[in-house]
Amino acid sequence: MRNTLCAVTLLSVFSVACSTTSTQSPPATETVTASHEKKPWETMTVEEKGEVMNTVVMPKARELFSAFNPEKYGDVKCSLCHGPNPKEVNFKMPSTSLPKFAMSMFEEDPEEAKFMAEKILPFIADALGKKPFNPADGTGDAKCILCHRAE
Length: 151
Ligand code: HEC
Ligand code: HEC
What we know:
- It is a single chain.
- The protein is mainly α and 151 residues long.
- The chain has one domain (2-146).
- 46% of the residues lie in helices and 0% in strands.
- The chain is built from 5 helices and no strands.
- The protein has helices spanning 2-21, 46-68, 78-82, 105-108, 110-127.
- Helix 1 (2-21) packs across helix 5 (110-127) and helix 2 (46-68) packs antiparallel against helix 5 (110-127).
- The structure holds heme C (HEC) (2 copies).
- One heme C is lined by residues 46, 49-50, 53-54, 57-58, 61, 78, 80-82, 90-91, 93, 124, 128, 146-147.
């Protein structure tokens, strides 16, 4: 049930983007070096995952978050996604320090939810060798709950 609702609401978010950017150009994530071309994410050791985080995720996260809101996200560190004591929790995701995912996010904070759907989700999916959830056909294994706890 939640998935269905999610699809509908995400669809309305995406349709805004699709009307301007879809067909020709892929999302602005093609510059991310796809480290998974070497090895699938799931089979990497924690060290290898950390390496991907350092070399692929961090530079792009800095770029995207600070472009979206330099005041709020001017200083992106591992802790932005992993919480204040990442090592203590072994970089466990989804992070208890992030707000829980809720459908109401799309109404209460539309700008940020849209940024997440259009920029952050495609970027992290690409970095981990996954596909962003596509509300149009229900495909894609990377969802908001990769980082946010489920509702
Ligand atoms: C933009 C958000 C984001 C940032 C910033 C980030 N990470 Fe991650 N990280 C993730 C996500 C999402 C996962 C989990 C992917 C999954 O489901 O396996 C993850 C997983 C990891 C893992 C693997 C944990 C495990 O047990 O599988 C390590 C280690 C890690 N991150 C280290 C880091 C380090 C070190 C930094 C800073 C250099 C960092 N991360 C910055 C989002 C982020
Ligand atoms: C790669 C990890 C990641 C993914 C995937 C992700 N988010 Fe986020 N999200 C974050 C981080 C990090 C923040 C910043 C939290 C903070 O302000 O400290 C955030 C913040 C938000 C906020 C603002 C919360 C606030 O109170 O400031 C909303 C709304 C949100 N996300 C919705 C979504 C939605 C909807 C999706 C899926 C379309 C999504 N997120 C996917 C990491 C992620």
